[in-house]
Structures are given as C-alpha cells and as structure tokens.
Automatic annotation (TrEMBL):
<protein>
    <recommendedName>
        <fullName>Sec translocon accessory complex subunit YajC</fullName>
    </recommendedName>
</protein>
<dbReference type="InterPro" id="IPR003849">
    <property type="entry name" value="Preprotein_translocase_YajC"/>
</dbReference>
<feature type="transmembrane region" description="Helical">
    <location>
        <begin position="12"/>
        <end position="32"/>
    </location>
</feature>
<keyword id="KW-0472">Membrane</keyword>
<comment type="similarity">
    <text>Belongs to the YajC family.</text>
</comment>
<keyword id="KW-0812">Transmembrane</keyword>
<keyword id="KW-0813">Transport</keyword>
<keyword id="KW-1133">Transmembrane helix</keyword>
<keyword id="KW-0811">Translocation</keyword>
<keyword id="KW-1003">Cell membrane</keyword>
<dbReference type="Pfam" id="PF02699">
    <property type="entry name" value="YajC"/>
</dbReference>
<keyword id="KW-0653">Protein transport</keyword>
Amino acid sequence: MIFTKLILQADSGSLASMLPFLAMIAVLYFFMLRPQMRKQKKEKSFQSELKKGSKVVTSSGIHGKVVDIHTNDNTVTIETGAGKIKFERSAISMELSKKYLPEVKK
C-alpha cells in the first residue's frame, strides 16, 4: 500500500517536472518550426508555378525577367541588365510584380 502511494507520487512529480520542458517544445514548434515549414511550402509552390515574363529575384539578389523555362533539367533562363543567365528553378526566391512592389508616390 505504501509502495503504491510512493509510485503514484513519483509519477505525478515527474510529470510536473516535465511540464516546462514540454511547454518549451510546443513554443519552439509553433513560433519557429511551423512558420518555417509554411514559408518553404509557399516558396516551393511559387517556383513550380513560374511563368514566362514574370519579374523575379533570385536567392543571390539578381533581378530579372523570366525568358525561358526548361522543364527537362529544371532550370530557368532570366534576362538581366548584363544579359541572359541560366538558373536552377530552386534559386528563384520571389516575384517582383505590382502586388509586391510598394507604390511610388509622384
């Protein structure tokens, strides 16, 4: 009987001591991991829906316009101020269209 009480008290004590650790894991998931996964999913869908004529920015910061999309080797040709450059589709990070650019007041 006494042994059973000790086991039950030990279990409730260990659960209470694990509660802050579990709370830290939940905070880490909801504030760091989940938003990162959502961002990666959004970026991947953008890269798969790329079209000719789109103004884009690469992950290295090069701005240009999509001229050609090569489906066989998963690359994209971008026209920049320096000429045409071939990039991996995964190197395209975002689109520069009117909905993403801020309004310029005249």
